[in-house]
Amino acid sequence: MKDLITVIAQALVDHPEEVRVASRENEREITFELSVHPDDMGKIIGKQGRIAKALRTVVTSAAVKETKRVNVEIVS
């Protein structure tokens, strides 16, 4: 899952070497924190959050086999 988020994010930004994905896990959910170069924040979020929403949808769909809920947070 972490690799999926990394590949998608690197394809969207101008500074792919600065894409970082960290994960936190507890008993009910896994949270992935995506951080990118400050100049690329707009490219990851998109107009009215459409790209961020699409990224979350893809990750949620890929996580159907997981027994835990999966979240993606975009952090600066």
From TrEMBL:
Protein name as catalogued: RNA-binding protein KhpA
Family matches, as Pfam families: KH_KhpA-B
UniProt xrefs under CDD domains: KH-II_YlqC-like (cd22533)
Function: A probable RNA chaperone. Forms a complex with KhpB which binds to cellular RNA and controls its expression. Plays a role in peptidoglycan (PG) homeostasis and cell length regulation.
Family designation: Belongs to the KhpA RNA-binding protein family.
Signal peptide interval: none
UniProt source species: Paenibacillus thalictri
CC per GO annotation: cytoplasm
